[in-house]
Design goal:
The structure is a single chain. This protein is mainly α. The protein has helices at residues 8-19, 24-32, 36-61, 69-77, 79-103, 105-113, 128-147, 156-182, 207-212, 214-220, 237-266, 269-274, 283-298, 303-343, 351-354, 363-381, 387-417, 432-459, 463-491. It has one domain (8-491): Amino acid/polyamine transporter I.
């Protein structure tokens, strides 16, 4: 009996659920207001659409490879560069773990208290940031303990979180429309032409600063390479996949644009920017609270009623994001690590690292990762910075580390196209000239935005932010080079 093939509608939905992140809209609105919209549209057209076709070609040709993007780059760039690039990609998951292990306490606080109280928490005389850092370490260790014992069923929590997050999107649209109707079509953040071109944020006034924001947009579209291996299951892939990618580009791009616009229906950007208690860690819950409060006002509820409705909205966002964070944390604690270790040269790793326990988990590697994450959490949390700066640094670190591997992956694509001994079940880029033009455009956007993101804090005199933003990729790049070199010294050229 033939295996059921993936059709157009199912493929578009898979792309949407893989890529679209509800929290990306609030972060974009907080950073640039309406001016973020154009960069998210450009991100869809200049990054998401062209790279999705590249991943499809890679995935179709290397469908049996276990190492994911490492296997894709290995043939084109060589084992060493592919290993270093993928290891830097692993850094993005490490930084994601550092960030989420701290952020997870914000939705929990919001669920319990109706708002983010983490900055006021104190254990043993520590301030809020340090306390959250210690709690984050406890969270990382507990998750590692359960993961190494094969408790994967907890990852189903992320499916529950996914349903809640989809509900959040529906609430945002319906409640925002109701607020606009109730307020006679007036937006809390006024609609002015210049607001869509230039942000009120002084960090994004110069053209270079605005281009650096493209990294936020690229990050918002990252992750589709995970679907590269499903090409053989797509019905009539030659026609279905490009059509699905185009439809998904339009839906996700418009989804982000509408999301950013709708947040302006209930929240004034200047008020958000001027509130010292608001940061990139709690912005989603603050905006959801505003949405509920404004909805109550639009329907003539009392002030107390509006406040209560805002608290309900914030708490719903809290439980949704808590489930999503916890579920994905369990999966991503071992999945990227295991895929990379099993797919890359075994000679590079210490023997204990590649050994799987009876639960099919590389336990030593998971614990080593947990210890590294815990050390970095403590170093960052006890850096003496405010929550606002802490979450900005974590966001920038994650953006840079997540997008840097794409520089290598995209660079490998035209070289992959020149390989003569590769079977190509799916080909979208039929011209080598077009391949090079698209590669150069995507590389230029990605590299320039990364460079501008890295130098921005240094230009502002923020050495803490600047050093930590670039520390992850450099540390993991050097560590990968050392591991590979030691492997070659032991076993000869790999």
């Amino acid at each position: 009996m033939d295996k059921k093939r993936i059709g157009l509608g199912a493929l578009v939905m898979m792309m949407f659920t893989t890529i679209f992140g509800f929290a990306n809209g609030p972060v974009a609105f907080a950073r640039m207001g309406y001016a973020a919209i154009i960069w998210y549209i450009l991100g869809a057209l200049l990054f998401f659409l062209p790279t999705s076709m590249m991943y499809a070609e890679f995935g179709a040709s290397f469908k049996d490879a276990k190492g994911g993007i490492y296997s894709w780059m290995e043939r084109s760039l060589g084992k060493k560069i592919a290993f270093i690039a993928t290891f830097i990609g692993l850094a993005s998951w490490i930084i994601w773990m550092i960030s989420v292990s701290q952020k997870v306490w914000i939705p929990l606080s919001t669920l319990i208290f109706g708002k983010d109280m983490t900055t006021t928490w104190s254990l043993f005389g520590m301030n809020g940031g340090q306390t959250v850092g210690v709690l984050a370490v406890v969270f990382v260790i507990v998750v590692a303990f359960f993961v190494t014992r094969g408790v994967k069923s907890i990852s189903r929590i992320s499916a529950i979180g996914g349903m809640f997050v989809m509900a959040l999107n529906v609430i945002l649209v319906l409640a925002s429309i109701a607020v606009l109707i109730g307020h006679g079509g007036h937006f809390a953040e006024p609609l002015r032409w210049h607001s869509f071109l230039v942000s009120g944020n002084p960090d994004y006034k110069a053209i270079g600063q605005m281009i650096s924001f493209a990294l936020y947009a690229i990050f918002a579209y990252a992750g589709l390479e995970q679907m590269g291996g499903i090409m053989e299951d797509v019905d009539n892939a030659e026609k279905t996949y490009p059509k699905a990618a185009l439809i998904a580009t339009i839906i996700i791009g418009l989804g982000y644009a509408i999301s950013i616009l709708l947040w302006g229906a209930s929240s004034n950007w200047a008020q958000i920017a001027g509130d010292k208690s608001v940061n990139l860690g709690n912005i989603t819950y603050v905006l959801m609270n505003n949405l509920g409060t404004q909805l109550g006002d639009a329907f003539g509820m009392s002030h107390a009623g509006g406040v209560l409705l805002g608290s309900i909205f914030a708490r719903f966002a809290g439980i949704s994001m808590f489930f999503a964070y916890v579920g994905s944390f369990f999966v991503l604690t071992y999945a990227p690590l295991k895929s990379f270790i099993l797919g890359s040269p075994k000679e590079v790793w210490p023997k204990k690292f590649i050994a799987l326990n009876k639960h099919d988990v590389p336990a030593v590697a998971v614990w080593a990762q947990a210890i590294l994450v815990s050390i970095l959490i403590i170093l960052i949390s006890f850096g003496g910075k405010s929550a606002t700066q802490l979450y900005l640094v974590l966001t920038n670190m994650g953006n840079v580390s997540s997008t840097l591997p794409y520089v290598f992956l995209v660079a490998a694509f035209p070289l992959f196209k020149r390989l003569n001994d590769v079977e190509r079940p799916f080909v979208f880029y039929k011209s080598q000239t077009v391949t090079w033009i698209i590669t150069i455009l995507v590389e230029a956007l990605t590299i320039i935005s990364i460079i501008l993101t890295i130098i921005s804090p240094f230009q502002a005199g923020d050495l803490f932010g600047g050093i930590w933003t670039v520390a992850g990729p450099i540390f993991f790049g050097v560590l990968a080079w050392v591991l590979f070199t030691l492997g070659e010294n032991r076993h000869g050229k790999l």
